Amino acid sequence: MSHHLHTSHHPWRRRTALSCALLIAPLAVGLTACDGDGNPLAAPPYDAAARVVFGAAGSGKADPNKPLKVSVKDDGSRITDVTATDAAGRAVRGELSADGLRWQSTGSLAAGAHYTVRVSTEDSDGHPGRKVVGFDTTPADAGLHVSFGPDAGTYGVGQPVTAELSRPVKDRAARAAVEANLHVGSTPRATAGSWYWVDDRTLHYRPRTYWPADATIQATSNLSGVRVQSGLYGGADKPLTLHTGHRVEAITNAATDQMTFKENGKVVKTLPVTTGKPGFDTRNGFKVVLGKESFVRMTSQSIGIAAGSSDSYDLPVYWATRVTWSGEYVHAAPWSEGSQGLANVSHGCTGMSTDNAHWFFDHVRQGDVVDVINSKGPTMTPFDNGFGDWNLSWDQWQKGSALGAAPAGAKTDAVKTPASAPARLQPETA
Q1: How confident is the model at residue 304 (pLDDT cuts 50, 70, 90)?
Q2: Is the pLDDT of residue 385 over 60?
Q3: Torsions phi, psi for 149 (to 5 deg)
Q4: Cβ contacts of 276 within 8 Å, gap of 6 or more
Q5: Structurally, what CATH architecture does the domain formed by 248-391 represent?
Q6: Radius of gyration for the chain, computed over Cα atoms and rounded to the nearest angstrom
Q7: How far apart are CA 338 and CA 136, in angstroms?
Q8: Are 200 and 170 in contact (CB under 8 A)?
Q9: Are the C-beta atoms of residues 251 and 287 closer than 8 Å to each other?
């Protein structure tokens, strides 16, 4: 490219120079593509302050609901590039008019943020100019806050991460804005995962398969100042750090009345058990340990059995590991030891000897997986009775996301039961 192309005032030659400038700016490449003595693009940019005009959000405290506008005076100058970033480095999307005279933001500005705007221009002779300006947006009056769960600590590999919102979010686009700014990751081994909108204020996050064993999980929110919907902006919230222990799975086969206890994929112990008798069949599917109680008083009235019925009971129960909020436990049942390993005689819980229940109690933690197979009971529901999240296939799970896995307008309320019996989850390979 000869240097007279850059210095010529012919319109078509000016456009050639402009195209070169546009190519260089976003690629941050040196000027060798348009090299030559006298090349105006090789000269230091002049101060374009006299030519650049900022509108709306260009000075003082700006309304984040209004677009940022940049224009040049009609003296033959053109805008070649505009970047607007906040203090966190988040860029604002924008659009430059075909004639290069106007640029306007198309993405939302954050509330309570400081922005730096860099404008590159070109005068009628093709000389580059530059203008940098800063401004602040007004803070949001009412913010959307998120609280991550569970509490910081060490959990089993089946523990989902939860996010509770301070206000309901119903619109799909608003949900997408929220979800795009909630991040969960694991180290030292990363694993793919996704959020699921359980309801308007509750999200659950899980990987495709279980979390890696002995990992660190961190959930963070980048919602601070982000426009969620008209009049609603995100607030600043605390991150959450969790740790996982070994991969523990307790697989109860209701057809053989045996529980296989596995740690990191290896069978540690096989325990004879009894599960729910006909009419009180134990729920099939994946459950997650919710808590442990060394002593619980269990009464039949708590599960709707009237006092005086042949099925009524009032029992002191030891070494009880809870897996549903409605009262399903793995616990000591010394009164049924003669049936353990042989028949199902309980009212829905998984019973075992006192010694075995004590051992189980000592070897599981909140978030470990209890998986019941071959029961004639219904499949554990995903969200309304504990953490049954793993009973949804990965395809079903992704449909609960607002970020494009489901078609526009698709309902993302909690799925009450999966379309089919859950597939057995396999560990991810390292």
Answers
A1: low
A2: yes
A3: -140, 165
A4: 254, 282, 344, 346, 347, 348, 349, 375, 377
A5: Beta Barrel (2.40)
A6: 31
A7: 74
A8: yes
A9: no
In this predicted structure, the answer to whether residue 395 has a pLDDT above a threshold of 70 is yes
CA distances from 249 to 48, 279, 332, 372 (A): 66, 27, 19, 11
Query: Would you kindly state where each structural domain of the chain is located, as residue ranges?
Result: 4-137, 143-244, 248-391
What's the rounded Cα separation, in Å, for the pair 287 and 324?
A: 7
Q: Which CATH architecture has domain 4-137?
A: Sandwich (2.60)
- Reduce the DSSP state of residue 231 to 3 states and report it: coil
What fold is seen in the domain 143-244? Immunoglobulin-like (2.60.40)
Tokens found for residue 199: 């309801």
Q: Can 4-137 and 248-391 be said to share one CATH topology?
A: no
Note whether 344 and 252 are within 8 A (CB). no
Place of tokens 């390993």: 341
Which residues have a catalytic role annotated?
Answer: 331, 349
Please give the biggest Cα pair distance in the chain: 104
3-state DSSP call for residue 129?
strand
Please, are residues 21 and 27 in contact by the beta-carbon 8 Å criterion? no
C-alpha to C-alpha distance for 171 and 408, rounded to whole angstroms: 11
Neighbouring-strand partners of residue 86: 115
User: What is the C-alpha separation between 110 and 150, in angstroms, rounded?
Assistant: 29
State percent of the chain over pLDDT 90. 57
54 beta partners: 70
